[in-house]
Amino acid sequence: MNKIYLDNAATTPLNEQVIDEMLSVMRNHYGNPSSTHSIGQEAKTLIENVRRKIAEYLRVTPGEIIFTSCGTESNNLIIKSCVEHLGVKRIISSALEHKCVSESCLEMKNHKGVELVYLRPDRNGNFDLAELEKILKSSDKKTLVSLMHANNEIGNLLDIEKTAEICKQNHALFHSDTVQTVGHLDLDFSKIPIDFASCSA
Q1: How far apart are CA 54 and CA 201, in angstroms?
Q2: What are the extents of the domains in the chain?
Q3: CATH assignment of 71-198, given 3.40.640.10, 3.40.50.740, 1.10.10.10, 3.30.70.270?
Q4: Where would I find the H helices in 9-115?
Q5: 147 φ, ψ to 5°?
Q6: Is the CB of residue 145 less than 8 Å from the CB of residue 93?
């Protein structure tokens, strides 16, 4: 029986060229990139070259690229860091977010006392950005808005540019899980006033 695989936005079979490159790096550049010896520095050079290429693709600076093991770790890191290090007291999100975002938001509510507000989707899964703006204006608490760019189950696409502008105008931090769209849609982060984006290869 032939199978049709429809989950490529989440994970996909590796391109043979990618496999070859990964094997080459693992065989030949195994040094600890934090070490000062030459083998470690060769590994560091590879990492920094990749960081620069990704930054160029996303139109950001290399210093804005932070590598994690996966999208889930990225989402967790951003949400928890905003609360623990940036003083966020309120999170606006939705019940349609990826499980890792929903659970991180709930953890911040239950263990850090953060106010958690859910933006309600319409019957088609779209959000009323006027409602987002109304919620943002309802409190002067430092706020993080966390909404995914494309829903991983129903495919709805958030107007990321408009959402970012609304957040900026209302002095809120904006995080978007772009795992489903990066590499598929042209995301020019030099033109989108977003604070945090989670991406995945």
Answers
A1: 10
A2: 16-64, 71-198
A3: 3.40.640.10
A4: 16-28, 38-58, 71-86, 99-112
A5: -135, 135
A6: yes
Would you write out the chain's pLDDT as a tens digit for each of its 201 residues? 899 998 876 778 899 999 999 999 999 999 999 999 999 999 999 999 999 999 999 999 999 999 999 999 999 999 999 999 999 999 999 999 999 999 999 999 999 999 999 999 999 999 999 999 999 999 999 999 999 999 988 989 999 999 999 999 999 999 999 999 998 899 999 999 999 999 987
Closest CA to 193 of 181, 177, 176: 176
Q: State the pTM of this model.
A: 0.92
